[in-house]
Design brief:
496 residues; alpha/beta; Alkaline Phosphatase, subunit A; eight-stranded mixed beta sheet; four-stranded antiparallel beta sheet; 30% helix; 13% strand; globular
């Protein structure tokens, strides 16, 4: 009892300090009784439109859909990178990729940055990580428990979820970072999934892909991986209910980047950057089944959970808490969200700014094609596109990945063009909006210390065949964006 009182007193002190230190005013109140438990589930390579509650009528995701019915669904939640580790390191630190020192795939985070689970651990939370881990050795300090061996966590990465929940210390609130390998290629849920999706009747073909037998089979296997996450998420929720702690437990489901198909993963379009984000918290979300259309960035996740837990704020985060949206989902939040495409198997340097109505993109390597990462270009769906192209059967949006040179600037009216098919950068009707976002993006780059190095990391693979090049064998790396401006030491958030 004394321990519980001590923790509550400490929590109230932290809560007061946190409210004074918020970078922006936040009208939401912190939990009145005990700090919430938090389960953060981040799927691998999943686009928002591939979840039932986001409009996909073919896929079976009953437990995620139930979360949306009992909690809050965000429809304008955007990542900072459509690339695994840069996206995750951005979330961990609440910083843009070029401000983390880990803007490229499989580069570790530096030790001087704060990771939000680490702050939770310091404030009295029991913290655990299970599943995919590639954010660098320094981040291990954020967790009391790490279970990352594929043999232990299962082929999809979800096997330990319920066990970790059952074996946790019962006298501490907890934060769990659960990172399934699903739905990353190669597929592994085809044979083990209890009720596989039928390629003929249970897939929705994105406009970027061909409707062919091989592509349908590819998509069905992808759906099965998402379904496996959903099944384990259901088991986890039932265990929370069995333990009687579901009422004050925050559960979040999201993904690190878009689906692993051409035209999605590594792209700065919505297919790559718009993530599903569903949050359930019975005690903290007064109106169930609501939808929040406010613009939110993935760098805002850490600050939000830290405020909810009374464990922050972070001294190095650029993001801002959106806790107020849980109580007032119709309230306006961000005007802009920003994203990056840096090296992921292939040389790249793209930047984008998105508003509710428009998307503006700059490409500093327009001479290069953008067929996606290695796993996407080797897929059956990609091979179908190559075959159809030889026969002249691709649509404009399907042809896009093969274009070289590409446009150095792109502008899309997302109100009319939800899949970003038609670049209207030269349309005089959009001239004022183009100029506005051009200035906003430049301001963001300047204030946050973004750079365009001449010697970026080169291609590691041949773009058409995927065969390894000398750079891959030599582990050749170039200059990381932001290096010359010491961007990892810059705390400015840029336009909001």
């Amino acid at each position: 009892m004394k321990t519980a009182r001590k923790f509550l007193f400490y929590f109230l002190l932290l809560s007061f300090g946190s409210s004074l230190a918020q970078k922006k005013s936040n009208s939401a109140t912190l939990p009145a009784e005990a700090p919430p438990n938090i389960v953060f589930i981040i799927g691998d390579d999943i686009s928002a439109e591939d979840i039932g509650c986001y409009g996909n009528t073919k896929i079976r995701t009953p437990n995620i859909d139930r979360m949306a019915q009992e909690g809050l669904k965000f429809t304008n939640f955007h990542l900072t990178a459509s690339s695994c580790s840069p996206s995750r390191t951005s979330i961990l630190t609440g910083r843009y990729p070029h401000n983390t020192g880990a803007a490229e795939l499989h580069t570790p985070l530096p030790a001087h940055l704060e990771y939000f689970p680490e702050l939770m651990k310091k404030s009295g939370y029991y913290t655990a990580h299970s599943g995919k881990f590639h954010e660098g050795p320094n981040t291990r300090r954020a967790y009391d428990l790490m279970v990352n061996d594929p043999k232990e966590v299962g082929e999809g990465g979800e096997k330990k979820w319920v066990e970790i929940l059952q074996n946790r210390p019962k006298d501490q609130p907890f934060f769990f970072w659960f990172a399934p390998f699903d739905a990353h290629r190669p597929w592994s849920a085809v044979d083990s999934f209890p009720q596989p999706h039928d390629p003929n009747t249970e897939v929705s073909i994105p406009p970027q892909l061909r409707d062919s037998p091989d592509t349908r089979t590819d998509l069905a296997s992808y759906y099965n991986e998402i379904g496996r996450i959903d099944r384990y998420l259901g088991e986890l929720q039932r265990e929370l209910e069995r333990q009687g702690i579901d009422d004050n437990t925050i559960i979040i489901f999201m993904a690190d980047n878009g689906r692993p198909f051409p035209g999605s993963k590594t792209r700065v379009y919505d297919t790559g950057m718009r993530t599903p984000f569903v949050i359930k918290w019975p005690k903290g979300i007064p109106k169930k089944g609501t939808v929040c259309e406010s613009m939110v960035s993935a760098i805002d996740i850490g600050p939000t959970l830290l405020q909810a837990a009374g464990a922050g704020p972070s001294a190095t985060a650029q993001g801002v808490s959106f806790l107020e949206l849980l109580k007032s989902p119709k309230k306006k939040f961000r005007n802009y969200v920003f994203s990056e495409h840096n090296w992921h198997d292939f040389e790249a340097h793209e930047r984008a700014v998105r508003t509710k109505g428009f998307l503006y993109v700059i490409n500093n390597r327009p001479e290069l094609t953008n067929q996606g990462p290695l796993d996407a270009i080797g897929s059956p769906a990609a091979r179908d596109l190559v075959k159809a192209r030889k026969l002249g059967k691709l649509t404009t949006i399907q042809e896009d990945i093969f274009q070289s040179p590409r446009a150095g600037e792109e502008f899309f009216d997302v109100r009319k063009d939800s899949v970003q098919e038609k670049n209207v950068i030269t349309n005089a009707n959009y001239a004022s909006e183009v100029e506005k976002l051009r200035k906003v993006l430049k301001q963001w780059q300047q204030e946050t210390g973004d750079t365009v190095p001449e010697s970026l990391t080169p291609d590691w693979y041949q773009r058409q065949t995927g065969k390894p090049l000398a750079a891959q064998k030599q582990n050749q790396r170039g200059e990381m964006p932001g290096t010359t401006k010491a961007a990892t030491r810059i705390g400015a958030e840029g336009p909001f």
